[in-house]
Amino acid sequence: MPDIREITTGLRFPEGPVAMPDGSVILVEMLGKRLTRVQPDGSKETIAEIAGGPNGAAIGPDGAVYLCNNGGCFTPLELGEWLLPGPFDPGQYIGGRIQKVDLSSGAVTDLYTECDGRPLRAPNDLVFDSDGGFWFTDHGIRDGAARTSDLTSIYYAKADGSHISEQVHPTEAPNGIGLSPDGSKLYWAETFNGRVFQRTIASPGQLAPAIPLDPSVCLAGLPGYQLLDSLGVDGDGNVCVATLVNGGITVISADGSSLSHIPTGDLLTTNICFGDSDGTGEYRDAYITASATGKLLHTRWPNRGLRLNYL
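Request: output the structure for the sequence above.
Response:
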């Protein structure tokens, strides 16, 4: 079991960590409505205030931060020492969107709010490929008062805002998304059914056709009551998915045959990313967002990590 240390606390539901080359970590505070930089000593600075609900984040080919914004589909819920995402309030919802943030000025630009005339509901996480485009999930909205739940999609979009396409539909509350080390496979986690899915990429922004009822599209499913959040893929091809309720990181081998679990002590462990503070090129620094307790954690990963595109 790796040692886990706390880098900083007091974050309002951190998500979307990005380990930067200078040793800092950029993340969103979903319920704090801002993009934040955390320095190695734990100090924090606000990069930009973000209306709605900033969620996943990634560095794009131009060096800007690209954000999934769920539109503010969750309201803050204080439960003792925990801060949780509470029920949908239509009065606070501004609509889902993909945004770009300039790191120098903090300027926020909306890139996409719809696809083929259908509004984005609650974009959650994104990953850039080596061709400069990005895949993203739309988690959708569960409205308890209206007794409704969205069926949503996996999308591919260009970073310049010129094109967006729907690639998988329907999906059930897709959350984390990632690419295999060679870029040939796309993975995504669906929160409430506790499964990680996989598809082969045929060409940039295009998935190979899936055979109906093909069980191989499901990489793994978790037993019992375990919900899935965001994910990262390490250098050995393991899918490292943040796991809710059973708070920690579940490590799924590339062939889906083995699972292991690294607990964090936070029941809403939401994301993981990899950095390279020692400059070896192995990216063994793992940064984990412990969202219910508002912490950014660090551990040394037992396998090689993976450098994301454009970092």
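Residues 252 and 258 are 6 Å apart (CA to CA).
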